[in-house]
Structures are given as structure tokens and as C-alpha cells.
Amino acid sequence: MLKKKLKKIKTEVYTLGQHISMSTHKARRVVDQIRGRSYEETLMILELMPYRACYPILKLVYSAAANANYNLDSNESNLVISKAQVSEGTATKKLKPRARGRSFTIKRPTCHITIVVKDISLDEYIEVDFLDSFRWSKKLKSKNKYTAMAYHDMYSNGGVWDKK
Asked: For residues 164 and 155, what is the distance between their CA atoms, to the nearest angstrom?
């Protein structure tokens, strides 16, 4: 008698944007609106919202969808934003000259934005025969060693984004 075994497959990919030059509060205001929504609905929301934080988040959502298409072979209509979080980055510091030879520091806050996209068409568990489990594990592991992750660095991307 063959034993059946449940094997978990990967259904989520993520994109990380680092050192984005804006406050975490301003980015969280936008990210809270898109969390848990479908991919197409998210694109419409981000294109119509009047905030400056929408543009870098829109680029990250596009990148997460491209990662899901490449790594999971998933369709864009099946994607859902499962997690979206904003964490605080390092503050860039400048010196502004003041009166009588003194200087004043200007702190520009940065943030790191993580967008996790889930494909709802894929089942999380597949049933595998006990004897075939070695073949499945080799197929799943050898597909792509490097998981879906893309870094979007504000400094290497060509400067500061447009300000509205």
C-alpha cells in the first residue's frame, strides 16, 4: 500500500524596496489601502490616489507581479496583495550653513517597503506518493535556487522620484 503525503508548495513572492526617500507614515497611509486587494484593483487605486508615495509603491507592485509571473508562472488576474509593510530606514543627513559659522543638520527620513503577492489559483498543498516524494522535492528545489526578490534602491535608480 502506498502512503500519501501532503507537500507544501510555494505560492507567495515578494519585492523589497529599500531607501525610498519618504516618511514611513506617508507610505503607510497608502499601503494600508492596498493590503488584501487584488492586483488589478490595486493598480487602479494607486493610479488614482493623489499621494506622492503611490509612485514607488506602484513600481514595487509591478515588480512583484513580474516576479510571480517569472517564478510561479502565474496569471496577473489570480494575484492578491497578501502582505504589505513599511519599515523605517536610515535617515540621510545634510548640513545647512547658519549664521556666525554654525551648521544645522537636516534629516531626510527613508523607508523600506515590502510587498508580498500571493497566487490564489495555486493550492498550498499537493498530494504526493511516498515513493515519488524524492522526485517532487528535486523538481521543486531545482526550479529556481534564488527566490523571488528584487531590490529597488532609490540611489541606483536614477535619483529622486517626482514630487507632486
From this structure: 20
CATH of domain 13-127+147-153: 3.90.470.10
Q: What is the model's pLDDT at position 145? A: 47
Rounded to 10°, the helix 39-48/54-72 angle is 160
DSSP state of 161: P
Average model confidence (pLDDT) across the chain: 81
Alpha carbon distance 74, 135 (integer Å): 23
Burial class (CB in 10 A: 0-12, 13-18, 19+), 52: middle
Dist CA 152 CA 19 (whole Å):
8
Partners of 113 in beta bridges: 17, 86
pLDDT digits (tens, 9 = 90+) for 6-54: 667 788 999 999 999 999 999 999 999 999 999 999 999 999 999 999 9
